[in-house]
Amino acid sequence: MSYPASPNGAGAIRVRPDAAQFWAGAAATAVVAALIALVGILVSRWALGVPILAPAGDGAWGNAHTGEYVLLAALAALIAAGILYLLELGAPAPRVFFGWIVGLATLAAVVYPFSTSAPVEQKAATAIVNLILGIAIASLLSAVSARAIRISRSGPPIARPISGPSAYGQSAYGPSAYGPGPGPRPQPYGNTEPLNHPGSSPNPPPPPTPPSDWR
After folding, report:
1. Helix H or strand E segment including 109
2. Which helix (H) or strand (E) holds 171?
């Protein structure tokens, strides 16, 4: 995303996420999402006795649906990361749009279990796990995006004043194009004149001799 140039000619401001840092954070978010899904299934089936995604006879880890659910959670995190990356590249207020997208997707994931024919406790447990997943993905990716943002400025460099006197034909930003500036001009050594008596010799003349009939 780019912002227009400033009035003083400093150039346009470009806001871009650092790709390496962003996708490293996205991969870490996918791992966290997968672990949340796995722990949620384990807590529901083993600690609470609510057999979600598989019959109760399949034990605390369930069946193949457990692995599918874990992989879907990681994939959802990566898809959300891709959406946020594209929004950061070109959309105004990217995190506002990302919040709405993830919020609506999380709401759909929470409501969907109640459309099945499973018992109510299984529906509620699945909805709670999906809600935690959505909140975790949104918060982690927002933090990753805020950390990976880089701000650059395009356009000509800003002129900076140079150090030193500017009385002999130099302005504050380099040599003057309009001739020497005000003030005394430098003269070669051995031919200097006092500034307060131009045209006089370096040594003052002797005082006049008084007349002979002076009393």
Report:
1. helix 94-111
2. strand 170-171
Q: How far is CA 69 from CA 5, 72, 125, 180, in A?
A: 48, 5, 14, 79
Find the distance separating the first CA and the last CA of the chain, reported in whole Å: 99
Nearest-angstrom CA–CA distance, 102 and 211: 112
Backbone dihedral region for residue 198 (phi beyond 0: left; psi -120 to 50: alpha; all else: beta): beta
Q: What is the pLDDT along the chain (215 residues), one digit of tens a residue?
A: 544 444 554 556 667 778 899 999 999 999 999 999 999 988 888 878 888 876 666 666 666 678 889 999 999 999 999 999 999 988 888 889 999 999 999 999 999 989 888 888 888 999 999 999 999 999 999 999 988 888 766 655 555 555 555 444 444 444 544 455 555 555 555 555 555 555 555 565 666 665 555 44
- Write out the two tokens for 190: 């051995």
